[in-house]
Structure formats: C-alpha cells, structure tokens
C-alpha cells in the first residue's frame, strides 16, 4: 500500500449549549490534546484500530466526557457503560453493552475483535472482565454522584443526565449536554477504524441499550467510517452510521452522503451528531444539534467544530 498522511477525528458529545466560556476553553484543550496524541501514534505507523482504541482510552480517562471515568449514573445510581469498535479493513464489529466497574470499556470491545461471539451484554460483559483479569474500577466522580442525588431529590424529572461534565450548580444545562465519545482514524496504509464509548444518557431505565455498541452508532468498511453521538434512540431510528457508510460505498461523495443523511434527519426531527472519515482522507462531520464537540487532525493542522454556527448541518475538510 502507498503510505500517506494519517487522518484523525474525535468527538465528545453533541447538544444545544456549551454553557460557560470557561468550559469551551477546557473542552478545546482536552480535545486538541487527545487528537494530537492519537495522530502521533498513527504517524508512527500504528494501525487504525490500535489508534482508535488508544484514543478511546484517553477520552475514557477524562472526567470531562461521558465514557469510562466520569460516566453518568443510571436511575438506580449505578454506572453501566457500552462501547463499540469496528475495523473497516476487516469489516469486523465488536461491542460491549452495560458493563460495570471497568476503566476502559473499549478494551473489552477490542478483546472481542477476534472472538466468535463479538457483542456481549451485562452478565456476559462482567464474565469477560473477569476472564481478562481486569482490576475493578469505580468510574463514579463526585460531580456525577451529586448530579444523580440532585435528580433523585427532584424525583428524576429530567429525561437524561448532563453528559458533558459541567458544574453541579448548572441544572439548566442538563438537557443541553449529551453525547458519547468517539474516535475515527485513517492510518498510513489507508485502513479505517472507528470506536465509540458511552455511559449512556443517564437516569435511564435499567437494561436500556445505547446505539454505541450497534452498527447504527459505530460502523466502518474500506470506504468510510462513522461514529455517532446524541440521542441514541434517534441514531438507531435513522441507522445513522451505517447509512452514511453505505452511501459512500455506493459512490456518493462524503459531502453528498452527509448532506442527504442529515437533511433527512432534520426533517425527521432527530437530535444527534456524527464524525466521519473516507478512504480518500476526507474528514467530515454532521449535526442536527446546535453544538458538536469534535476535533480533527489533517496531518498539517488541528481544527475543531466547537464554535460552528448552529445552522451549519455538515462540514468536510
């Protein structure tokens, strides 16, 4: 294969508001720092899949995001996390659903890549963590616990928690901040991979399954790779990630595929965002939400989508 500059794009959620200016600065620093580290790994020759796992680990370690450490609590006060991983060159998907007490849910999805059974939930996920000899890890932060306690005192009136970390004194932001984390990489050999990891929407019914560990939220092949964020049920209803990938595979440009897909989503009243890469190196994103928290590395420069106009549906660089 002819080697070329790798490409990386990551996301940390989508919603209707970034809130305080200080939060924007902090999020930008985190996103830029992480995308630079992932790019450095790709530039050193690592495979797209390994770079995706590495990037998801970095984001799962940041309490700014709703994945791994800092995940939101479900209605019973427990954290249950999900993650999906897809190697586009092998067109192989693996996922973990509603796993508890692990540091990096993406590691379980990665472990399942060569397995005959590649998507596991709750009991199976717990057994897999024991099989991998993973040390028990408590992902609950003080902020998330206080958020849950405040919602419990209010009889859980909010439909979801505030899944991009803010301050406990800003309850009005709860419905405005939602999402997952995701990483998409095109490596030096032209291979694509994608990973998505989430703590869910928070305060949800026990057993609820997010889109992240499904091909609606995480999908890749040799032509394109997509990771989604936002309202999981909306993402599943649109089969968002795979719809975009199939359109690119069938010959549409990434620009056209995003424009058509997000135009349909807007007409259907959906609330979400997505990041994407094509095998041609096109870095792309789309959103129906006002804000998409994404950053990318072109090989020459780092950019982000944090202050894009709310009327901008899609972008390609």
Automatic annotation (TrEMBL):
Domain of life, source organism: Bacteria
InterPro entries, A to Z: Ntn_hydrolases_N, Peptidase_T2
Annotated positions for site Cleavage: 179-180
Any Pfam family hit: Asparaginase_2
GO MF entry, a single one: hydrolase activity, acting on carbon-nitrogen (but not peptide) bonds, in linear amides
Residues binding substrate: 208-211, 229-232
Active-site residues from the entry: 180 (nucleophile)
Protein name: Isoaspartyl peptidase
Organism, scientific name: Shackletoniella antarctica
């Amino acid at each position: 294969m002819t080697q070329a500059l790798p490409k990386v794009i990551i996301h940390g959620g989508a919603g209707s508001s970034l809130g305080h200016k200080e939060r924007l600065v902090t999020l930008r620093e985190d996103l830029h720092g992480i995308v630079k580290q992932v790019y450095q790994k790709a530039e050193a020759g690592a495979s797209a899949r390994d770079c995706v796992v590495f990037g998801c680990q970095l984001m799962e370690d940041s309490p700014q995001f709703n994945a791994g450490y800092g995940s939101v609590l479900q209605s019973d006060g427990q954290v249950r996390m999900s993650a999906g991983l897809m190697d586009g060159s092998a067109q192989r998907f693996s996922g973990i659903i509603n796993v508890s007490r692990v540091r990096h849910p993406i590691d379980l999805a990665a472990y399942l890549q060569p397995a005959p059974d590649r998507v596991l939930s709750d009991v199976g996920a717990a057994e897999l963590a024991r099989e991998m000899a993973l040390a028990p890890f408590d992902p609950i932060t003080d902020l998330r616990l206080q958020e849950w306690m405040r919602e419990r005192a209010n009889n859980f009136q909010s439909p979801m928690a505030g899944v991009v970390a803010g301050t406990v004194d800003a309850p009005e932001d709860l419905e405005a901040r939602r999402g997952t984390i995701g990483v998409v990489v095109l490596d030096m050999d032209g291979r694509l991979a994608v990973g998505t990891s989430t703590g869910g929407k928070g305060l949800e019914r026990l057993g609820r399954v997010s889109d992240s560990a499904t091909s609606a939220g995480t999908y890749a092949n040799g032509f394109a790779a997509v990771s989604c964020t936002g309202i999981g049920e909306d993402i599943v209803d649109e089969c968002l990630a795979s719809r975009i990938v199939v359109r690119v595979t069938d010959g549409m440009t990434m620009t056209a595929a995003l424009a058509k897909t997000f135009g349909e989503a807007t007409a259907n009243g959906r609330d979400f965002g997505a990041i994407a890469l094509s095998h041609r190196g096109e870095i792309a994103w789309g959103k129906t939400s006002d804000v998409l928290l994404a950053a990318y590395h072109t090989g020459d420069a780092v950019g982000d989508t944090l202050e894009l106009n709310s009327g901008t549906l899609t972008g390609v660089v």
